[in-house]
Amino acid sequence: MTLRLDRLAAALAPLPRVSLGAWPTPLVPLRRLGDALGLDLWLKRDDCSGLALGGNKARKLEFVIGEAIVRGAHTLVTAGPVTSNHTLMTSAAARRLGLEVHVVLGGEAPTSSTGNLALTQLYGAHVHFTSMNTADPSPGDLAASRVLCERLVRDTGGYWIPPGASMPASIPGYADGVREVIAQSGGAFPFDDVVVAYGTGSTSAGVYAGLVLADLPATVHAIAVSSPTAMERFAAPPPSEMVQAAIALFGWPVTLDATRARCNWVRPVDEPGYGLRTPAADAALLGMAREEGYLLDATYTAKAAAAMIAMARDGRLARGARVLFIHTGGLSTTAAAAAH
């Protein structure tokens, strides 16, 4: 198998970037869980990315904020739910780089701040609240949040970063993550499948972009953690659409259909909604802690792990397949999940 590492490196090299993470993050085997599932299973620990409490946003923000600074931005504006890892990590990144940051949080302002909200405020972010049920957002709530974000961008002259940093400029983050795994694996990509949570989609899209650029015969499985109804209201795009947008933006010389990489967008019909726990996810969180000694978060990685387990058991992941599970962080919520 010939890898197009030259094409992957050339696609990333000219892009503006800032330094936020501690790379490379660990790549570790999950032998007991893998044996139980009939998989050669590995964990990419981006919960150890080195920005705030760790997580996947560090890779994406390195490229997004690099672009913002090139454009002369001094202020960042972004949004997410009250418990958002993204707004926390964007606030930390802004402070690292001497930028101002405004975050719009969907949900009611609590009487006292805890968790990610308390840490976001600790970083000195300008926090704004807008009414929203993030598990089942109404069109009116989404419109109100959009109006507030647009006003803040206009009033501050800020650079707009969508929730989850899901924008074409963020896609190189996890394309570079694929390059990092190849470097950690002695110049090869020894995996048939990659499993990762899909919240707003740009992490899975970035992985897919990396596989495409390097022409790797692997499939990324993007596991949705929001309900089908909410995803329709958000107009959630498939990862392939995000990669196409990045190809157009950066002029990458590649066509999706002409590569061996594949993307499987998994949208469970019984997914109850963002931030709502499920018995399967709780079991996956408990199993990972007790079998392997690693913590998952209840919102993203536990749901993705539950889907991976189901896919191994029903044959969607072939027996003996070499599978990489990407830990996207969010561990600040794990203690609360465990308490319940």
Task: Please outline the helices and strands.
Elements: H1 5-12, E1 27-29, H2 31-37, E2 40-45, H3 57-70, E3 75-81, H4 85-97, E4 100-106, H5 115-122, E5 126-130, H6 139-156, E6 159-161, H7 171-184, E7 193-198, H8 202-214, E8 219-224, H9 228-233, H10 239-250, E9 262-266, H11 279-292, H12 301-313, E10 322-327, H13 334-339
Cofactor: pyridoxal 5'-phosphate
GO molecular function: D-cysteine desulfhydrase activity; L-cysteate sulfo-lyase activity
EC number: 4.4.1.25
Structure description:
The chain has 340 residues and is of the alpha/beta class. It has two domains: 5-55 and 168-339, Rossmann fold; 57-165, Rossmann fold. The protein is built from 13 helices and ten strands. The strands form two sheets. It has a six-stranded mixed sheet with strand order 1-2-10-7-8-9, sandwiched between helices.
In short:
Helices cover 43% and strands 16% of the residues. By secondary structure, the protein is of the alpha/beta class.
In CATH, the architecture of the largest domain is: 3-Layer(aba) Sandwich
> How much of the sequence is in beta strands?
15-25%
- DSSP helical segment count: 13
Number of strands: 10
Helix/strand/pairing class, anyone? alpha/beta
Shape: globular
